[in-house]
User: Which sequence fits this backbone?
């Protein structure tokens, strides 16, 4: 249970960081609307807010999955980083490629593709680092 809580905390924090990064990209909430389009929930007025909340909630859900994956294993820095990168790739494939193209019909240009690859990998790294740091603090 402790690993799931740590994963949830790490995922929520990483989702918040990701939402803040998407907010400051070329105007107020430009990529937050793209995150809302993944679920076909984008609207002119509330699309940015919906995308912001979705990124935090999805970050928490993926963090819980990360915690379940790490349950019962020795947590080392290398394992946490590699697992985090794998989680970032899973985030990219499921949310951006599958949901984005199938549900939201989001087409990405080169800039959008590179942006979402970089931010998805960053999300995974942050989850791995926060999870590892929470286990190191607990051990002391």
Assistant:
């Amino acid at each position: 249970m402790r690993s799931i809580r740590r994963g949830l905390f790490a995922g929520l924090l990483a989702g918040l960081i990701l939402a803040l990064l998407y907010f400051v990209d070329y105007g107020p909430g430009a990529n937050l609307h793209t995150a809302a389009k993944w679920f076909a929930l984008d609207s002119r007025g509330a699309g940015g807010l919906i995308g912001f909340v979705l990124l935090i909630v999805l970050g928490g859900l993926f963090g819980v999955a990360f915690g379940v994956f790490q349950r019962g294993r020795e947590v080392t820095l290398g394992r946490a980083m590699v697992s985090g990168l794998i989680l970032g790739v899973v985030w990219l494939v499921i949310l951006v490629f599958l949901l984005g193209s199938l549900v939201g019909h989001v087409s990405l240009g080169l800039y959008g593709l590179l942006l979402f690859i970089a931010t998805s990998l960053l999300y995974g790294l942050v989850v791995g680092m926060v999870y590892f740091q929470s286990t190191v603090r607990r051990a002391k």
